[in-house]
Amino acid sequence: MQQYHNQTQAQSRMYVCDDTSKTPGKLMIPTKGYTMAQNFEKKDRSWSVTSDIPTDLSIQVEDITFNVHKYAVLSKSGYIGRVDLHPANSDYRNDAKLDNFPGGAATFEVVLKFCYGLPLELSPNNVAPLRCASELLEMTEEFEEGNLISKTEAFLTFIVLASWRDSIMVLKTCENLSPWAENLQIVRRCCDSISGKAFQDKRSVGELNDDITWWFDDVANLRIDHFVRIIAALKSKGTKPEIIGLCIKHYAEKWLPGMEEEVLGQREHWFGSGELQLSIVSGRIQEAPISQSKEQKIIIESLVSILPPQKEAVSCKFLLWMLKMAMMYSITPALISELEKRAGLVLLDATVQDLLIFSYDSRDQGKPISSPEKKTMYNTDTVQRIVEYFLMHEQENQNFENLEVSKLLDNYLAEIATDPNLTISTFQALAEALPENARICHDGLYRAIDIYMKTHPSLQEHDRKRLCKVMSCQKLSFDACMHIAQNDRLPLKTVIQVLFSEQAKMRVAMQSKEQVENVAECEGEESWLSAKKEINTLKTELEKVKEQMLELQRDYSELQREYEKLINKQHSTSSWMLGLRKIINAASFNGKVEADSGEQKKISQRRQSNLGRRQSIS
Fold this sequence. Notes:
Elements: H1 2-11, E1 27-29, E2 39-43, E3 46-50, E4 57-61, E5 64-68, H2 70-74, E6 86-87, E7 94-98, H3 104-115, E8 120-122, H4 127-136, H5 148-160, H6 164-173, H7 180-183, H8 186-199, H9 205-208, H10 216-220, H11 224-237, H12 241-255, H13 259-268, E9 277-281, E10 284-288, H14 290-305, H15 316-329, H16 333-345, H17 352-355, H18 380-397, H19 404-416, H20 424-431, H21 443-455, H22 461-468, H23 478-485, H24 492-521, H25 528-570, H26 575-617
Helix pairs in contact: 3-4, 4-5, 6-8, 8-11, 14-15, 15-16, 16-18, 19-21, 23-24, 24-25, 24-26, 25-26
């Protein structure tokens, strides 16, 4: 072999390549060898060397056949000398085939030109495939000083890794060079270089504003496995979790359906079916093949697995969006559970729109439910688990002072109440998920119940009663009570309970005003004027209360007439209901009369007392 190598070196001195010009953005490296090639020709699927000496070796890479001189390749490659050559039709030719060659036919062409002594043009776009190809072909210093391995390795070490842009470009080319790029540590070295330069950006999240960190866009263009490597390296260097969270969010927004478009797409495709998956690109709803859905599933699972554990790393909106994507593409249940727990920790930052997670068939990932008569539109089980995680966290920290979650849940109930397939049990379970002290006012809960009854007009009377038991009449505002008094969708018993409750509130208010008046009577002469002013104010308020009682009385009278019509139809009257009506009438009218007479009597007594005090003083 060595004798043959020396012989070919001597023969190759026929032609000398003296072109050492440089191309912008590339590095032209002249070689020491000489070439026998006069020209290189491409025709169809063939690549040939024009020379006075006929070629004697055919090498097939992909679908291209390279006709070359055997000694030109053997002079720099140890691998070709060990390839099992197959005799061709000619007595002077041999055939070889290189499967899965790094970089394909384009890279092999550059290698052949290097073997023929032409200057080597190295750039960030070709250095990685050339480095892998040279490793496969065993182009070491044993065959020639300054062989292809040493040249590409030097370019990587001293040129590429010193530059952010070049490292990104090389890492992109490595996506199609597995496993060679991994085994040669090209990927690891590029990721370390990129993460090291990104870590030098010491700006805080508040300083970013609308100016996204300069390296976000570049790393977002990388394949997901390389992106994960960079994030892992940034974590190990101590990068702030907020910065890592923003970077992950930026990557997700580039490769996954948009937040707003995703909700629109789910609504329009909820009843859809077929072999294609839902995908949204550039704000337009499109259908993507199954292969693309698998790729997006891998992206979602990878991004969830690298989320920083800190609570402040990502927003609740982003977590719930990722949860929707996770449900849509049926990712690993453990990762879905992790997202639910994370969302529960920051539930107070969520909106109703964030919580609207559509139901999907787990047997066919990404496809909306195609049987609306049996399934609900929204995935309420997931929301209930999120609420439970929130309550567990609040109880552990003994910090259940913020009642905003009740407003959020009541608004969510009002939204999902429009689903015709939502069962009473599901609605009731969500409404009762919060403890009793979480709601000061039940107006929002009543609104959700009313919407549910309006959407489900065929509900039986016992179902309506069961639904109304969820809310407390004592925690309803006066406006809500007035609305209930005129709402014919509610059970009659619930309406009566609400009227009784409101009447009791008014009596308590009147009693408190009487106590204030008694205190005013005990005041001395010097405070008489201020007490008189206060009494006048109380009189005005009392008049308002009387008007409200009259309005309630009119509503109650209307209910009595409706009830009597119902009794006449049934030809029977319940004795306890008649007694109840008498009690209500007596309480309503007697309370009103007693309030009027008591007020006038007290005012008269105060006037006489004040007059007596003035006479005694005089």
